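One chain given next:
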Amino acid sequence: MDTTELRIEPRDTTIVNEYRLNEGKLEMRVRDRTGGFYPSHGTAWRVLNQDELNSHIALNTIVAQWMSSKIWRAAHN
């Protein structure tokens, strides 16, 4: 599975959330619109916990839709 990233840039904030599937785990990090990192969030990718994954799936967020399509493609290649 590759590590293509999903970048979400809400219109009403300067925070950008980046997601990636890495070795079968969903990871995220927070950046600003210029590509810098927020000191309070650090620079490293972090693995989403089960509650966070469940929330994305239950709410059918764009992250859940993206993750589902990536997993489906990997299973059918």
